[in-house]
Write a structure and sequence with these properties.
By secondary structure, the chain is mainly alpha-helical. Helix content is 51%, strand content 7%.
Length: 136
């Protein structure tokens, strides 16, 4: 992976705006900044089998299609053996991410946040239907 050299500055520019959405726990170097500027955090706390199967499906599709991702990076099947590959990383980091989220949800620094903790894809869909209903 080739990192984006302006990543931290890019994130700072986005979170300085009035409205934005990130679909990630946030990389460690920008996580505190994102959380301090957010008004809502949605934690999709799915079972390990759900997370791993979704990461594997996405990785397979990206490796198969060789479609460029951020900063021109591509994925190939040989990379699956790399300990930093998303599949291996998600398995290894699963518990630590859960613990980090629990800690952050309880942290007084983030008392200003609306916190939504969803444990299943069905619960996530119900919540999403409530906050952003589909037009008929």
């Amino acid at each position: 992976w080739v990192p984006i050299p302006t990543f931290e500055a890019d994130v700072a520019e986005v979170v300085a705006q009035d409205a934005w959405v990130f679909d990630s726990h946030g990389y460690q170097q920008v996580r505190d900044l994102m959380w301090s500027r957010a008004d809502t955090v949605v934690w999709l706390d799915y079972r390990r089998v759900v997370v791993t199967s979704r990461v594997a499906r996405r990785s397979f599709a990206r490796a198969w299609d060789r479609e460029p991702m951020f900063n021109g990076n591509t994925e190939d099947f040989r990379a699956w053996l790399d300990p930093e590959h998303p599949i291996q990383w998600s398995v290894r980091a699963y518990r630590a991410r859960q613990e980090d989220m629990r800690t952050r949800f309880a942290d007084e620094r983030y008392a200003h946040l609306r916190k939504v903790h969803l444990r299943t894809p069905r619960a996530a869909q119900r919540w999403l239907d409530l906050v952003a209903p589909h037009p008929a």
